[in-house]
Write a structure and sequence with these properties.
It contains ten helices and nine strands. A nine-stranded mixed beta sheet has the order 1-9-8-7-6-4-5-3-2, sandwiched between helices. It has two domains: 5-179 and 256-329, Alpha/Beta hydrolase fold, catalytic domain (Rossmann fold, 3-Layer(aba) Sandwich); 189-253, no CATH class. The chain has helices at residues 18-27, 80-91, 120-132, 146-161, 180-187, 192-213, 229-240, 246-253, 280-283, 316-329, and strands spanning 5-7, 38-43, 49-55, 66-70, 95-100, 139-144, 168-174, 266-271, 291-296. Helices cover 36% and strands 16% of the residues.
Length: 331
């Protein structure tokens, strides 16, 4: 990567603007399919578990490609973008594993600790499990929003430590919050306060359920419940995960500092009008040969409501993720 490049996306009629792209992208139905995946449990060293949802094409065999997709904050394997992109990949002969993070989806009552932006080890354990189920095959990783940060952090750590798995061929991060402090500041501005309250309300039941299931689980501190994500992270995520407060959590977990060490072909896609992830954090990244950053003028946060070059796709971002995988996994 020398400089971020402008990716071409023409928004559909009446979908211009970051908030409109974000909200319509979230609420519009997206190619739902009948659930037919096989579940695999990923056991973690601290006793928590993750769950992989394995969608395997009928003609898939040893040596054929596989991919693992990871959801964003308060999402799960059933999130629209996860289902859509998994379906497109399966239709092209790729075996797909959709990951449920700690406390999410099928792992909802099986985790004492929360997942967060810095849990790169969880990504390693899950991808290692998927690769052992696909011996002799090359795989790709895709992380959306918060998972994109987790993914980039892992790739940088592995690049610096010379630990890149031989079976990992490529990666994609979509709208990753690579500077968590900057994103936290953006969430406190104007209309974004509605997103802030929305995500906070979605996360609170996860904590309550965790405390009911695991009486010895880490408990929130301070004046509970919080009204913002920053308060949530300061009172719960950070102390429950071993950080000394929210500033420590954000500084240690932000992926921007790890990106220069990535040595896996990696695509980062974001939008200039993403209301949640300030685009300047991407424009300031240094040159990294293995990393390609694409910035669309429109797209919002995980919306990308634009007509893709291939009419087989309903969303531009689905087309972009699948074509990146196709290039590196050779399908």
């Amino acid at each position: 990567m020398n400089h971020p490049v402008e990716a071409r996306l023409r928004p559909l009629l009446f979908t211009g603007g970051g908030h409109r792209q974000t909200l319509l992208g979230y609420f519009l139905p997206g190619g739902q399919r009948r659930y037919s995946a096989r579940r695999h449990v990923v056991e973690l060293p601290d006793g928590d578990v993750l769950v992989l949802h394995d969608d395997c094409p009928s003609d898939w065999g040893p040596g054929c490609p596989f991919a693992m997709l990871m959801h964003g904050l308060a999402g799960c394997h059933g999130s629209n973008y996860m289902v859509r992109i998994a379906g497109q990949l399966v239709d092209r002969g790729v075996r797909v594993f959709r990951l449920d993070h700690r406390g999410s989806g099928a792992a909802a009552e099986r985790a004492k600790f929360p997942y967060h932006a810095g849990r790169s080890d969880d990504v390693r354990f899950a991808f290692d499990k998927a690769s052992r189920l696909c011996p002799g095959s090359l795989g790709g990783l895709a992380g959306f929003s918060l998972s994109g940060n987790m993914l980039l952090k892992m790739l940088g750590e592995d690049g610096l430590g010379g630990r890149r798995p031989a079976y990992l061929a490529c990666a994609v991060a979509v709208n990753p919050p690579i500077d968590l402090e900057l994103c936290s500041q953006a969430m406190r501005n104007g209309f974004n306060r509605l997103y802030d309250r929305h995500f906070t309300k979605l996360l609170l039941p996860h904590v309550e359920q965790r405390l009911r299931t695991f009486p010895d689980a880490p408990r929130p501190i301070g004046d509970w419940p919080p009204s913002t994500l920053r308060q949530f992270d300061d009172q719960y995520t950070a102390p429950a995960s071993g950080f000394d407060g929210v500033e420590h959590y954000y500084s240690e977990s932000s992926a921007a500092q790890f990106i220069p060490d990535i040595d896996v072909p990696t695509l980062i896609v974001t939008a200039d009008d993403d209301p949640l992830i300030p685009v300047e954090s991407f424009r300031e990244l240094p040159a990294v040969p293995a990393v390609q950053v694409e910035i669309t003028s429109h797209g919002g946060h995980l919306g990308y409501l634009g007509r893709p070059p291939d009419p087989a796709f309903r969303r531009w971002i689905d087309w972009r993720v699948v074509t990146w995988f196709a290039k590196h996994l050779r399908f």
